[in-house]
Amino acid sequence: MTASGVLWSALAGYVIGGVSVARLVSRLAAPGESAAEKTELRLQGSEESLVLGTVSATSVSRQHGARWGFATYWLDVLKVALPVGLLRHFFPDIRYDAVFATAALLGHVWPAWHRFRGGRGLSVVYGSLLVWDWVGMLVTALAGMAFGLFVARSIVVVYMAGVWFTLPWLWWRTGEPAYVAFAVVANIVFPIAILPELRQWRRIRRDAKWSDPAEVMQLSGMGRGILKMARRFGLLERRG
Question: Is 227 left (phi over 0), alpha (psi -120 to 50) or beta?
Fold first, then answer.
């Protein structure tokens, strides 16, 4: 690697990673309205709520519907996957792609031009995996979900375990120190990014009305999907 190559890869990664697809999609979904910096998630009939501190596919889904949220997620994936793929193609023996991906993760989570308020970073992690090892994108996500549901039995672990598993997966599949370093950074950045929500989840779980994990899982689109799967496998009983 050259110093200039690393610098330009990092700068491009931060700028592209910091492009707020969620804000752009929100403007398309509701012209004339600005993307809300905070989205309140409230269960029907409850005074308790969880406030998202991020502007992401989840907040878009809650504000404008699942289709817009789905589009936001995959555009976020592609904004990283395409440049990472190009860098890997043109510089196959130099890990500019890993430098770009790491900087893109930081830009996505903490974009300077949006007061350092971005998304969580999952789309960047999986967008990079899509290029480096697309099988790993599927395996780590599904394994994380299964581990959280059937072993840890925790919605928080469901959200986090997929990122945890990228570290051993990339080490095993690629043996590339730069990719493993990216996974290390992701496992530091992601928990920090969702820390405000983790604190709220802890508060919500202490509330007797919200002690049922199935209720907490209804707070997000991902959680509702996981809840359906958990009930299908008989992990959670239906509450009448």
Answer: alpha
- Answer positive or negative: Cα dihedral of 61, 65, 69, 72: negative
Terminal-residue alpha carbon distance, the chain: 61
Of the listed ranges 59-68, 131-140, 215-224, the least confidently predicted one is 215-224
The 10s digit of each residue's pLDDT in 55-105 is 777 778 777 877 888 889 899 999 999 999 999 999 999 999 999 999 999
Q: Enter the pTM of the model.
A: 0.83
Helix then strand count (H, E) for the chain reads 12, 2
CA distances from 105 to 3, 137, 147 (A): 20, 16, 24
Exposed e or buried b per residue across 197-221, where buried means at least 16 C-beta atoms within 10 angstroms of its C-beta: beebbeebbeeeebeebbbbbebbb
Q: Vertex 187, ends 185 and 188: CA angle to 5°?
A: 65
